[in-house]
Automatic annotation (TrEMBL):
<dbReference type="GO" id="GO:0005975">
    <property type="term" value="P:carbohydrate metabolic process"/>
</dbReference>
<dbReference type="Pfam" id="PF00232">
    <property type="entry name" value="Glyco_hydro_1"/>
</dbReference>
<keyword id="KW-0732">Signal</keyword>
<comment type="similarity">
    <text>Belongs to the glycosyl hydrolase 1 family.</text>
</comment>
<dbReference type="InterPro" id="IPR001360">
    <property type="entry name" value="Glyco_hydro_1"/>
</dbReference>
<protein>
    <submittedName>
        <fullName>Beta-glucosidase 41</fullName>
    </submittedName>
</protein>
<dbReference type="GO" id="GO:0008422">
    <property type="term" value="F:beta-glucosidase activity"/>
</dbReference>
<feature type="signal peptide">
    <location>
        <begin position="1"/>
        <end position="23"/>
    </location>
</feature>
<dbReference type="InterPro" id="IPR017853">
    <property type="entry name" value="GH"/>
</dbReference>
Amino acid sequence: MHSRSGIALTIALLVLGIQHQQSQFPKGLCFWNSLCFIPERKNSYVKNVVPSLDTEDKILRLKSYIDTFDYEGAVKEDGRGQTIWDTFSHSTGIILDRSNADVAVDQYHRYIEDIQLMKDMGMDAYRFSIACRSFSMEEMKNGENGNSFVILGTDGSGEINQAGTEPYVTLYHWDLPQALEDKYLGWLDRQIIKDFALYAETCFEKFGDRVKHWITFNEPHSFSIQGYYTGFEAPGRCSTGFCRFGNSSTEPYIVAHNVLLSHAAVVDIYRKNYKDKQNGSIGISLDVKWYVPETNAIENIEETQRAQDFQLGWFLDPLIFGDYPSSMRSRIGTRLPTFTESESSLLEGSLDFVGINHYTTYYASENATNTIGDLLNDVVSDANAYAIPFDKDGKPIGDVVYDSNFHLSSHELLIPTDIFH
């Protein structure tokens, strides 16, 4: 839960300044004194790589981050449209305490106070999201102004600039307009690619003079799983027997596929029409659970790589190489959508930077008795790997923080290494 001020503090580690040069695109990411994920090698880990940090173009920032649905409130003001999260949170039996975001932390009315709080706390960056439901499709098609987005409005942008805080703007943080969900099931239909691109370009045109860092999606892995595999989050879809609608075996892959294609389309538009003119950059923020082998056995290392492929690799591999990890292709088969040659080309290298939201680290081991997974053929069991925070002797991977699912460990810090150059 956020405080009333609407500021959820985080220490953000953004791998910034990875300028898009096709021949020199970043080769890997490394955890301090741990394992190195090098996409180029695909099937193995490199241990104990000592990283070096070029502080001129790799920046560690202290920032706050909040998403529109969590903080804005004012759900009935200025023609605000409904989102899938409005519908989901107001559905009977969904939220245990029946809370919703109708008021939230009311930043719509308190943004000046919140910006002053950020200034007082020394924040040099503020990452927040714009909501697509702030604009109607007709307004976007006709080039008209959106009905309101107060933080990026004239007053809000002036306050942010005076506070010495740099905006990092996320285009999509899970709050799809309910109208698009009703019309064609949102992220399950390829029409979303065109509509999202139209929305993004509207934002570039309206706010590009003030925003120099754009993030297409926040944590697409999370909303693909929670919204379409477990049904625990909007739009609440999963297989029959647990949800009214959905298919946990296929829909998460379809959603992720359309998200990746939407990202690629938007990045292409930005680079062709806005990047140089507005002197900006564009990337994505991925939620990353890191996995380490419980032992040094080759089999355990391979299992760990597979677990990572189905988490970080699911999204990062297409954005760097233009396709999914080979382990996903071989294990999922026809349930995993394919990219055309032109789509793959558009995806490859479609990052100026990547934001990493890293929460915890797990040991990975093979799920040797995957009978239920073999029967279900669903997105979680497909990896055929256990993720546990304890080793074989019951020793936790690190100190517990927040709750039993989150642990501090020696694998916490993600930083770029010399292999970026």
